[in-house]
Amino acid sequence: xxLTPSDRARxxxxxxxxxxxxxxxxxxxxxxxxxxxxxxxxxxxxLYLAAAGVGTIGIVDFDKVDISNLQxxxxxxxxxxxxxxxxxxxxxxxxxxxxLNVIAHEVELRADNIRKIFAGYDLILDGTDRFGTRYxxxxxxxxxxxxxxxxxxxxxxxxxxxxxxxxxxxxRCLFPEAPTAGLVPNCAEAGVLGVLPGVLGTIQATxxxxxxxxxxxxxxxxxxxxxxxxxxFGEFKLERRSDCAVCGDRPSITTPQDAVELCSSDVLAAxxxxxxxxxxxxxxxxxDSIALxxxxxxxxxxxxxLAGSANIPMGELPxxxxxxxxxxxYVFICRSGAxxxxxxxxxxxxxxxxxxxLEGGLLEWARQVDPTLNVAPP
Length: 378
Known about the structure:
Blueprint: H1 5-10, H2 12-15, H3 21-30, E1 32-36, H4 42-52, E2 56-60, H5 85-96, E3 101-105, H6 114-118, E4 123-126, H7 131-144, E5 148-154, E6 157-163, H8 171-174, H9 187-190, H10 196-213, E7 222-227, E8 232-237, H11 265-269, E9 271-274, H12 276-285, E10 290-294, H13 298-303, E11 310-311, H14 317-320, E12 329-333, H15 338-349, E13 355-358, H16 361-368
Parallel strand pairs: 1-2, 1-4, 2-3, 4-5, 9-13, 10-11, 10-12, 12-13
Antiparallel strand pairs: 5-6, 6-7, 7-8
Helix pairs in contact: 4-10
């Protein structure tokens, strides 16, 4: 994959970086990267990978462009509304860099097609907003030995993590179980700051370029968090779980599996979403019958929490659910509401039926009830 005179002109700023230079740019030209989802996260990551000269880019998306997508999905223009995202994305990238090999996979990624699709690529970027797909992609990358850069967004917050086979934990080490379908609101339900996926998507592209060229320190064993409201980045150190269902010492997942969507009316009815003001009243009138479970990390909990709440971090929750009494009402709490909704899903799956979740998390509590509460960044 030698560089042509046109390549040298286009990528001259890369060539000027001794960390990349000719060798690194040739690696980028030879690389084959698959991006799952051409939405908010996929848009910036795909654009920057193409601009960087990644030789082959595959795009998996079976959705069509909607007018509401244009607030954050910068791959598309108004004229693309109603068109398949994968096809429109390919045309956009070819207009940006005609020398690239860009492939549209206009399909829904499933267990029965993921091996064939992944086979043609060296590196996977996951920008999907579907939990079932996120776990399917993670598990397939572990099983097939593919590096993975994963990111997720919610309202004003985002996170990113990189998995490299045999070098660190996978996504399932951090979140062993996918939340119950319908419990975690999507962008349409919860809203999302338009620029947020731009930040996380470019981080994904950065990680991909580093992995391809072999420079820098990737996010292996580190969960990077971003809070747009406070303009803060945070980081959690992670370890591979020996009991992880896919990358652990005795894995129970040995082939890719489609997620089992548990969204029955009984399960959904078990979840009560309450405001900060409602919780304040409950703590006065129903104190003896409710238990507050804060699912944030211990450091966050130490910095500030509601009186009487117990700290069970998300990573420990699946193994501790059997200790919770089915006769009690549990109110799950986190910083902004995302983790507590996931916790409700796990608890509902475990058979607990009296569950509540603090909408907006402790940020809303601090805004509506107690502004002196210290809500630490994740």
